[in-house]
Amino acid sequence: MQNATIWRSTVKAGLLTGVIAIYIALTGMVLSLSQRPVIGKLSLGHVVYMLVFAGMGYIVARRHVGKTQRALVPVHGALVGGLGAALLALLPIVGRKIDLAWMFVTAKPNLYKFLLFNQESTALGIGYLILTGAALGAATATLPVLPPVLHQALLGGASTTLLMGVLAELVQRTILKKALGPLFAYKGLKPWGAAVLFVALSVLFGLYAWWRQNHPQAQRSVPLETGPEPAWKRSLKLGLLLLLLLILPIWLLSKDTYLNSVLNLVGLYVIMGLGLNIVVGFAGLLDLGYVAFFAIGAYTVALMTSLGPLGMGYSFWQALPVAIVFALSAGVILGVPVLRMRGDYLAIVTLGFGEIIRILANSDWLKPFMGGALGVLDIPKPEIFGRVLKEEYQLYYLILAGILLTWFIASRLYHSRVGRAWQALREDEDVAEAMGIHLVTTKLLAFGFGAAFSGLSGAIFAAKVGSVYPHTFNLIISINVLSLIIVGGIGSLPGVVVGALALVGLPELLREFSEYRMLFYGIALIAMMLVKPEGFWPKRLNVYARPDESAPETAQ
Amino acid sequence: MALLELHNVHAYYGNIHALKGISLTVEEGEIVTLIGANGAGKTTTLRVITMLLPPREGQVLLHGEDLSQYRTHEIVLKGISMVPEGRGVFARLTVLENLELGAYTRNDKQAIAEDLERVFTLFPRLKERQGQAAGTLSGGEQQMLAIGRALMSRPKILLLDEPSMGLAPILVESIFDIIQEINRQGTTILLVEQNALMALQIAHRGYVLRTGEIVLADTAENLRNNEMVQKTYLGME
Lengths: 556, 237
Prior knowledge:
heterodimer, A: 3 domains, two-stranded antiparallel sheet, 4 strands, B: alpha/beta, Rossmann fold, 2 domains, six-stranded mixed beta sheet, four-stranded antiparallel beta sheet, 10 helices, 10 strands, 38% helix, globular
């Protein structure tokens, strides 16, 4: 009886695998990505559907371990993969008899040919397909049965190798090209390169897994009993991190313009995220018009520094503080009318404010001053000590300085008196007020600081891009910033960085997936919310008593 | 002069006339209780005193000074501290941070540390759990924290809103013991309760509210023996 349940769940998983594979094939991505080699002749088109077989085999195997005989687990995996592949094979069989293209535009003969590995004989092609599915399912299903170290080694090695193949073009723009260059073809990995990489990475992952197994205390990210780590260790870690950040663009990324521009974009979002995190994460005020302050910062710098007819000819460094002050004032001014609003109502009003700023910038009425839809052009790059920061990797340092500054301010604020007040406000407005917290100043401070950070980000953005247009500042930026805070872990500073990397950096790097980029992005977001609903790097909640030495401190 | 006085207070939620001319006094050192059924206006009375719901008519006087000129956050400075209904602890902050927020309006570090010690003596559980997030405490511990937090502002008068709500009977007893202890240490207490039996046991005087009006005012002992009170609020036949 027990046994029958397990087999039934395996068959169910196999059918699900088939449905997902057919869906992926019908979206057209299999065929459109088939021209992009990953490893040798294996294309990205192959990878996207084969990954379904492999992935489902793995998931099923992990569920089955311990419930059935170990030797049988790979069989279950093979069944999942094989069944999925068999269902996928129905697509060419049915498709060659009945024309499906009237409904699914991508269901065309060349898709069928590709799915059947370009075989002349349908039977042989289907055979290959099912065999591939079963083999992949069995292979990944074997992993959970292996000793943990081996499991980690092979899984890490295989997935990283695959990732390197997919991102081959980007990898070759970095310092890794010097070391790994010969392993790569123009696009994708050479077959022997992939083999070498797989073995080397597996060994590395294996060593790491083995080390972790023998140092169980290292597995706990937060040492509960041992107390805070010693100061020298912290400083050493911080120093190393800073060094890494300093050499990142010129050495690790080899001054590559594209990668550094992606990095800079992420950096600008980090600054915005740190600002919005004060408003939403610390004080719990949902602000959907955050892009307005970004726009105000950008337009201030644009209008003050532009060399075009609208510009006033000030330098970037003269314009920067003005931009921040303008954004801050706008934040406070917006704050006044929404003081009495909470939650959803606040979100809607701020949403409106964001739109008003964009529409004003776009209007004919303000065109003589702000350029209307044509925007402001000819914004000079910032200059420092007589050097013009014109390359992306040079601008990176300006953005890094901005991040460090805002990070420092945000973390000091969090632990300050006003930071406490923000948190109390977030938890319960009435009770906070009854504790003696002045709601008006506290809220306005949150809006002001948040807006100022955004203004700083906008100011750098204007100088980096060299031109600003009203349509740049649309709602999606506000939504992106809010999403990255949530994905990173609301209220958490490192979470902002992780969120920005995941939501801004990743989609940029996934450009190769062209129109399917947003599909992957959406899937990743849903998966993340299911697996880690509190965010990738959440703010830690104290559940256990904290060690005594850090306890006695009073409010200030 | 009474410590706290309400004179003919009328309060509204929109068009709903929630308090229809409440008058009551709380003398220094007393425990006074407001009892009544759901919707009688007990919590509303506390909201009026803390100016979360400013009265439309009538006066709230503390030592004879009209409080309606102040905003909620200034009421604490006047010496009134509230333990809200449902406890209202700041769930994601630690116990210690909650207590520190109770002393938000104060700057005297030394005295704050003393008061923290006092709260920890009253509630040793809170000392054990000071580094823990308040939301992870049990209901009884959260109630203790809410009371402790209110004490951190060194109030002259402590307003308690349904401290027994949702607690096991044994915990209710110990919370009421502590309320008496706080009173003995010199804090005046205005206690709102549905659990009239418990409230009338520790209070000196009591008021009975019904649909926004005070229908009875007497010493706690007399109220306990009052036939109407026994029938309606103490469940005796």
